[in-house]
Amino acid sequence: MSWLYAFMLAAGAPVLLWFVFSGGDADMDAGAEVDGLGDVFSVIPLSSIAFIATFFGATGLVSEWLGTGTVFTLILAVVVGVLAGALNSAAFAFLRRTEASSDVSDRDIEGTIATVSLAMSNEHRGRIVLPVAGARSQMTAAPIDPLEDGRTIEAGARVIVVRVEGGVAMVTRLDPELGDPRLE
To answer: Comparing C-alpha atoms, which of 162, 165, 167, 169 is closest to residue 110?
Structure first.
């Protein structure tokens, strides 16, 4: 039986190490194009199979080295391997359920009202503070429409993000009729 444990450890450990060091997706369907294997990987993730094989092989080899009986070693190796695979699947299922993403696209920012934190003019970009995904964030900003000669949008003024170009928020003044006296 030593050959079986050694083979499972040798087959599972490199795949498991690949997942650990590459940050590979736990549900990756690697090998799904191989005839018949696609069905297996759609039910059991490859990372769980790697956990099962690695822990089955390692437990079997260690148990044999310690001199336990053949039947006990086989049962222990199967139980430890299956538990390792189940814990892996449960852990990644929990992470998928509780995962939160803070990815925000430029389109999500367009139309947002922001406050100028560093004045801007036709010649100089400024900075704005705006709410992004429930948190205050800062962006480089520039006026979308040319300002009259020498005019600036001062710090503290409120602006609207019209669009984002190359990471720069193109803004326009908030309409004075909306009641913001800080606009010039």
So the answer is: 162
Residue with tokens 């600036």: 152
Instruction: Give, in words, the CATH class of 106-178.
Output: mainly beta
Among candidates 17, 19, 20, 10, which has minimal Cα distance to 61? 10
How far apart are the C-alpha atoms of 24 and 18, rounded to whole Å?
7
Q: Which of 136, 137, 138, 126 is nearest to 173 (CA)?
A: 126
Q: What is the pTM of this model?
A: 0.49
Q: What are phi and psi of 14, to 5 degrees?
A: -65, -40
CB 45 within 8 A of CB 89: yes
How do residues 116-141 score in pLDDT, each as one tens digit? 999 998 888 999 999 887 788 889 99
100 token code pair:
């939160």
Q: Where in the chain is the domain with CATH 2.40.50.140?
A: 106-178
